[in-house]
Please model this.
Amino acid sequence: MSYVVLYLLIILAFFISGLFIWGAWQLGRAQNRTRVLENFKKNPFTLTRHAGNPLMHPGKYEFEQQAVMNAAAAHDGERTHLFYRAIGSDGVSRIGYASSKDGIQLEERLPYPVFALEGSDPHLDALRRAHAEKNYPGLVASGGSWGGTEDPRAMIMDDHLYLSFSAFENWNSVRIGVTSLAVADLKQKRWNWSPLAFLSPQNQVNKNWVLFPEKINGKFALLHSVSPTVEIAYRDDLNAIGSTESYIESPQGPRTRGRSGHWDNWIRGVGPAPMKTEKGWLVLYHATDREKYSHEYQLGAMLLDVDDPTKVLARSPAPILSPAAVYETSGLKPGVVYSCGATIQDDNLTVYYGAADNYVCAARTSLSGFLKKLLGHDPNPFSPFSTPLSL
Model:
């Protein structure tokens, strides 16, 4: 057999293999779309993606060259302010800023981060030096960064914007930090953040904690767990935590419980800060169906009682958002939709979410219709798994 024929056969083999891989990929996408359509028929209050998604792509500036995702959102009565997680070319997560009049069309996106841990965290500085020396080749947090300010949440209360986030120090220490900014400074883009306070102790792993947008019984209220029960911690002064006020302990931990036989049988944690509605506190949360789609993050909803937010009034019987669009099924982490921000304006519920740990996207629905359908479902309780989970 001549070398020419052999080369042609090799090329043909690669072509056939490529067709097979492409066909398998297309089949998976088709099955995913079919599943989402079936979920929509069973669960008609599924969120509708914005036709212009993604709202944000990784940018040309160094601090956001690798990825943008997981935007916190707050509305000041005039504009929606988005604080998004940006991963730079150095592998560090920082917080970028964009804003919108209608909540969708971004008229403003700053070319620099508005908040970062540099200069305020000596442990992060040590990690940065080690990273520069390439002594930590395997130290990579979720989303592709190795340290910094991850997954922000934002809410406005008493003329101040509060920004909470996960501070990734190492795999054994992920702390919840919080800072604040006067709304007047926010509107003028004066980033006069208050001194950083940590709500959780060092050398623990805590993520997905959110502040309620108003005080409850005169105290700051922090939702730190939704499984198997709703857990809320109350503090008089966030800046005093760790000194005169104790750190908040969250014994439930992430990804430990869910509803057996349901789509959310593996709970990942809370999404955006709770939103107050006439029917109760609307809380969105992340979960995985480890029996069917163990690699995916999906988004669900629950409604908490206004007067007693530890009481669950309803839970969504199916995901309100599942990864299906091409920008959700390909990227740094395919199969992930992860929300850290949502707003309510008029009758619009707008949810901002990270897609595949690579983009910032948005989805909307009618709030009144959403709540009506959500309240029609029994809040089946979460329960411990019968077998331990492995990460």
User: Anything to note?
Assistant: The two ends are 52 Å apart (CA to CA). Residues 1-42 form one domain. The chain is about 15% helix and 35% strand. Helices lie at 3-42, 122-132, 183-187, 326-329, 367-374.
